[in-house]
Amino acid sequence: MRTAPPGSNNAGGSGSVSWMAWPALIAFTLFGVVPLLGVLVLSFSSWTGQTTDIPFSGLDSWRAVLSDPDLPHALWVTFLIMALSWLVQTPISILIGVFLAARHRYRAVLAVLYFIPLLLSQAAISITYKALLDPNFGLGAGLGFPFLQQDWLGDGTLAIGVVVFVVSWQFIPFHSLIYQGGVRQIPASMYEAAQIDGAGRIRQFFNITLPQLKYTIITSSTLMVVGSLTFFDLIWVLTAGGPGGATQSLAVDMYQRGFKANLMGPASAIAVILVLFGLLLALGLRRLGGRDQADSQLEGA
Amino acid sequence: MKRRNFLTLSTGLGAGAALAACGTSGPAGGGGTAKAGEASYWFLSGPPGESVRTGAVERFNKANPNGQIKLTAFQNDAYKDKLKTALGAGQPPTIIWGWGGGGLKSYVDGGQVDDLTDWFGQNAAVKDRLFPASFGPATINGKIYAMPAETVQPIVLFYNKQVFADAGLTPPQSWGEIMDLVPKFNAKGIAPFSLGGQSRWTNMMWLEFLFDRIGGPSVFGDVFEGKANAWSNPLAIDALTKIQDLIKADGFVKGFSSITADSNADQALLYKGKAAMMLHGSWSYGIIQAQGGSFIADGKLGYMNFPGVDGGKGDPNDTVGNAGQYLSISSKASAEQKEIAKKFFTSLLDDTEQSDWIKTGGVPIIKGADAKLASSPDADFLKFVYGVASNAKVFAQSWDQALSPTAAETLLSNISKLFTQSIGPQQFADNMNAVIGK
Predict the structure, then answer these.
(1) Rounded to whole angstroms, how far apart are CA atoms A134 and B281?
(2) Tens digit of pLDDT for each residue in B231-256?
(3) Residue of A61, A88, A105 whose CA lies nearest to A261
(4) Helix (H) or strand (E) holding B326
(5) Do B14 and A50 touch (CB under 8 A)?
(6) Local structure of residue A207 (DSSP, 8 states)
(7) Do B307 and B86 touch, CB atoms closer than 8 A?
């Protein structure tokens, strides 16, 4: 199972069909690599975004961004949202995924229900939550529960909490789906063997399910971590980076510099920083999986 | 030369695509470039302005079958972003709707808009019927780059007469009285002031008045003219301290820093009697009329100019806000399109459009418009606004419009911090001094 020579894992990788990769490659180059290079070029300019010619200014934008006293705060907020949303989403997603992986008819209905948040647009979700959390006209004031009558988005700590909650509410369905798929790939024979040995359901979960989900966890975590770097619309609609900059993440900072302050150069520098962070994190997580990650996990493959 | 054009074009497109990919990319398309012989015009959507603007264009198009205007309406923030992207890509609309001031200056610096000084010289009739004050934000370096349009919008102190009557209190005549009212309303469980603080410029209106009433127009004037350390003026520090005193005394509604002005929740707090007073643009009148049920019809809405501060140098007759809205002509438009736009300018604020604006609770920026106001059911408010606008010796432009976009963004982000008390007056002044003249 682990002895496959390197290279044999790229399904049907004979030269005759490699042309099938071209459409994807062209699209990626056109819409991924070219804009990325464009942003890199812009980060060395003092473009205001309002003219068609772009004045270059060397390292000025980078100097301005890296010496900005607010940058460490934006990094911290970005990291905090990333870490907290990973910590909240992962355990819940695994549990829901395992639960849904079992084959019963009613679970299919539940799976559809759980999936609904993912189908809604992030902006719509944010607007809804913003209305529900309104300190004067929201859920708390309407129902009269003192606990709900917090200044949810007007207090820095609570606002971060709300952002993490709404992010998790939206993306747990997606990650549950990934885990559901992962769990269904675990060979039933393993559970049968464990049952014969007298292992209970909890023991089976920790000794079979979790270890077998290793690569699924890495995939899902990569998506969570890298995705959280670019959370923008949700934070923008909920808090606009406020109150007083408490939820000013790098993505929000980039937007404000670029589109509000007409500083496309520094905004592009932040975009490049975000890309670098994303790459580093993705590579780091890949290493966690070890060398055999890319091999097929299917029995007999 | 050709190669350079290609490079700039491709990098511009790349940045646009990359930035757009970061969020939901908003209303795509929208028909930016108009066909030959057709001028495009972008403006803000939403009541009450959209229908008046649309009406003006439709009447123009009907009267000029050979020179049509194609209009597209956008939401406030979407409009600003879309316009910026379009300018950067070299495909702006023929007629650019805006607020004048620092934003207009950034178009002028980029060579994006036409100088209209000569045209106004040749068409004195167009110029002379408008409020002279409305030309201030349209004038950059002594030249006129925009056609003033629509209505005058000073910032007004609104109050709920019912709440005051029930509490047996009278509206404040000075800053001291404001501070005295705060504990009295709080004791009754009513917020003294409504505020949509998440929008940030809402907080800024307070600073604009306090700076003016305490130190007169020169305090912010120094900032505007780029004098070093202008924000450290002791009178500025005094104003910044006073606003934090009001925040510490719970002068603003609980949770104000999470309320947005776009949702009109701040106006709702006032007409639902949850807050006693609200400092807001005169356009709030139209919003309250549309959404506040019979609040205005029942005579419960009170309004006044912002009161003076005891010992302050400023004139309590001064005001701030929008002296008008502004239409510029893109320098990229064809000669034919520019002609249509100029023809359209001469048709603006005709009798129908004037009465349309008056119906929305707005005062058109036309000299002698007060004669038309009397017949309106909102005559009292409209005459009040006309009076404020014409009696003010200084009608200052809103700071975020007056300053360059770069300085304005720093200002707004520091105002947000000042109002959540994460920085004090001195820190605010230091942060702002760093961007003076930028």
Answers:
(1) 23
(2) 999 999 999 999 999 999 999 998 89
(3) A61
(4) strand B325-329
(5) no
(6) I
(7) no
Rounded Cα–Cα distance for residues B193 and B183 (Å): 12
Contacts of A125 in chain B (CB under 8 A): none
Q: Does A282 touch chain B (CB under 8 A)?
A: no
Instruction: Output the six-digit token pair for B174.
Output: 């000075």
ipTM, interface predicted TM-score of the complex: 0.80
Q: Taking a C-beta distance cutoff of 8 angstroms, is the pair B205, B155 a contact?
A: yes
User: What residues have CB less than 8 Å from A155, skipping those under 6 apart?
Assistant: A243
Higher pLDDT, A191 or A16: A191
Counting residues of chain A whose pLDDT is more than 90, the rounded percentage is 48
Q: How confident is the model at residue A12 (pLDDT cuts 50, 70, 90)?
A: very low
Q: How many CB pairs under 8 A join A and B?
A: 176
CA distance B355 to B364: 9
C-alpha closest to that of A182 among A205, A210, A221, A207? A210
Compare CB distances from B274 to A136, A232, A267 and report the shortest one's residue: A136
Rounded Cα distance between B412 and B282, Å, is 21
- Closest chain A residue to the Cα of B111, Cα to Cα: A51
Contact criterion met (CB below 8 Å) for B242 and B206: no
Q: Per the CB < 8 Å rule, is B11 touching A41?
A: yes
* Interface contact A95, partner B, CB < 8 A: no
Under an 8 A CB cutoff, do B413 and A51 touch?
Answer: no
Nearest to B18 by CA among A159, A109, A40: A40
Distance CA B101, CA B104 (A): 5
Q: Which amino acid is at B87?
A: L
Distance from C-alpha of B408 to C-alpha of A261, rounded to nearest angstrom:
7
Chain B residues near residue A31 by CB distance under 8 angstroms: 17
Spatial separation of the C-alpha atoms in residues A238 and A85, rounded to whole Å: 16
Give dist(CA B399, CA B402) in Å, integer. Answer: 5
The model's pTM is 0.83
CA distance B320 to B306: 10
**How many angstroms separate the CA atoms of A250 and A253, rounded?**
5
Count other Cβ atoms within 10 Å, centred on residue B77: 14
**pLDDT of res. B187:** 95
Closest-CA distance of chain A to residue B45, Å: 19
DSSP state of A258: I
Extract the tokens encoding B407.
């300085």
User: Does B35 have pLDDT greater than 80?
Assistant: no
Test mutation, B80, B200, B257, chain A, max A CBs within 10 A = B257
Q: Which of A244, A261, A263 sits opposite B420 (nearest CB)?
A: A244
Q: How far apart are CA B113 and CA B105, in angstroms?
A: 10
The pLDDT confidence band at residue B40, using thresholds 50, 70 and 90, is very high
CB of B32 within 8 A of CB of B93?
Answer: yes
Return the closest-CA partner of residue A252 out of A280, A271, A265.
A271
Cα A283 to Cα B153: distance, rounded to the nearest angstrom = 55
CA distances from A207 to A194, A203, A211, A214 (A): 9, 6, 7, 12
pLDDT surpassing 50 at residue B315:
yes
Detail the DSSP E strand segments found in B53-146: 68-74, 95-98, 139-140, 143-144
Nearest to B88 among A49, A153, A245 (CB): A49
**DSSP alpha helices (H): ranges in B174-283?**
175-187, 201-215, 218-224, 234-248, 265-271
